Each structure stands twice: as structure tokens, then as C-alpha cells.
Amino acid sequence: MRSRVEELDRQDETFAKFLVTSPSSSGSGEINEESFKVIGDHCGAMKARNVSEREELTAAARSLAQGRRRAHDRTTGPASGST
Fold first, then answer.
1. How far apart, in whole angstroms, are the C-alpha atoms of residue 17 and residue 1?
2. C-alpha distance across the termini of the chain, in Å
3. What is the pLDDT of residues 5-39, one digit of tens each?
């Protein structure tokens, strides 16, 4: 899960770099405005999916960690200091 989150972070960095450098390409005529808009919309949609996936992975990791703690508590008894 951790490696997937790292991959999502790298993708977001790539999208951000592309969107920052692309307007100069659009202004120089390398990419026409219509194409830039389509590409920008696609990058925005991919970033939104990445945010959603990252949230799901974070929730799953949190759930797994809680499950491990509960299993550990069942095998070792309650933590010291609790009444």
C-alpha cells in the first residue's frame, strides 16, 4: 500500500510539472489551446482519482493497523496501566 501511495505522489508531481510547463508550450504553438485544455482536463481527472485512491489506501492501512492492535491486545491482555 505504501508503494502505491508513493506512486500516486509521483504521478501528482508529474501532472503538476506538466501543467506548469505546458502553458509555455501552448503559447509557443507547440500545443494548441484546445489540446492543452483536453490534456489539462484529463490530468485534473487523474489527480482526482489519485486523491480518492490515496484516501481509500490510507483508510485501509488505518483499519489494518487497528486490527493488528486489537489482535495484539487479545493475545497479550490489556495494556498496563488500564483499570
1. 25
2. 36
3. 999 999 999 988 887 776 665 556 677 778 888 98
